[in-house]
Design brief:
There is one protein chain. The protein is α+β, with helices and mostly antiparallel strands. It contains 7 helices and 10 strands. A 3-stranded antiparallel sheet has the order 3-2-5, covered by helices on one side. Strands 6-9-10 form a 3-stranded antiparallel sheet, with helices on one face. A two-stranded antiparallel sheet has the order 1-4. The longest helix is centred in the last third of the chain and has 64 residues.
Length: 307
């Protein structure tokens, strides 16, 4: 029968062997466990190899609404296929955009710049390698939300061109035109939109169009409070002047109408005099007004002269 020390040594060897086996199994699982990705209905993913024994390089695209399994250690970067909105103004992705008008007045405007990220696989790979990976601009979850890096990227590639486009377009209009004329404001909005593709393209190396299908919505631009107060006062003065002008015009119209009535009445009287004669008209006028034109005279009375 083996001694107690010998039994302890054998048990220790067994425990050590089991520990080595478990450790080796964990190590194998760590290095050979596959990675997985599940894209949403408005997402695609870029698949890059990045295992312990493979170089980091682009492999393929994972299309929308797809689950894929790839090699151990591989990476997947999610990007949106649906329209993205960059909101500027209170509660948005950045503060309102300020600009200077044709007549030198500084104004500010809230709005939304909408666009699509070009998710054609070769183009999206170039975007990721040049821009997305640098800013970590890929989506950080499958719930459709962008990342902090996404907003940082937009502040360079969308926000700066947007500021330039608004500032350039504003040089064609005065602040009163932009503030009071909806037709001018609509044309200003179209002017901004027309410049966006070229200005965004200048931020990018090469001829790739990483952003497409721009749409711009600008709210009513706002001048400084002092300028706004002066404009309101001016509009009130203009309104008062127009009211007085309208009142004077009404009085002129009333006077003209009265003159026309009097001329018509005079013409009617002249016609009656022509028909009745002056005496006949006067007698008829007296009768019409309740007077008796046939008053007795002393020459017509019969008197008793006496003896």
């Amino acid at each position: 029968m083996p001694s107690a020390p010998t039994a302890v040594k054998k048990l220790s060897r067994v425990v050590l062997g089991l520990g080595l086996v478990v450790g080796l199994a964990l190590a194998v699982l760590l290095f050979v466990r596959p990675t997985t990705v599940s894209t949403g209905p408005d997402q695609v993913a870029l698949h890059y190899s990045d295992g312990a024994f493979t170089p980091r390089r682009y492999e393929d695209c994972v299309q929308r609404s797809t689950r894929a399994w790839d090699g151990p250690g591989d990476k997947h970067y999610l990007y949106p296929t649906s329209q993205r909105n960059y909101v500027f103004g209170e509660g948005g992705d950045r503060s309102p955009v300020t600009f200077v008008t044709k007549d030198g007045i500084e104004m500010s405007v809230d709005g939304v710049a909408a666009f699509l990220l070009n998710t054609d696989c070769p183009t999206l790979q170039k975007f990721h390698d040049l821009i997305g990976n640098r800013y970590a601009a890929y989506m950080d979850s499958a719930d459709g939300n962008g990342s902090v890096g996404w907003l940082q990227m937009l502040s360079v590639y969308i926000s700066r061109p947007l500021e330039t486009a608004i500032d350039r377009a504003s040089q064609n209009y005065t602040y009163t035109e932009l503030y009071t004329d909806p037709n001018v404001k609509a044309q200003w909005e179209r002017d901004v939109l027309a410049q966006m593709p070229d200005l965004v393209g200048r931020q990018i190396d090469g001829d790739e169009e990483f952003f497409t299908d721009f749409a711009i919505t600008l709210q009513k631009p706002v001048p400084p409070e002092a300028v706004k107060a002066a404009l309101v006062a001016q509009q009130e003065a203009v309104a008062r002047a127009k009211a007085k002008e309208a009142e004077a015009a009404a009085q002129v119209k009333a006077a003209e109408a009265q003159i026309a009535v009097e001329k018509a009445e005079a013409a009617k009287i002249a016609e009656r005099i022509r028909v009745l004669g002056r005496e006949g008209y006067l007698k008829q006028y007296a009768i019409d007004h309740g007077l008796n034109p046939y008053q007795p005279t002393t020459g017509g009375l019969i008197t008793d002269s006496g003896p």
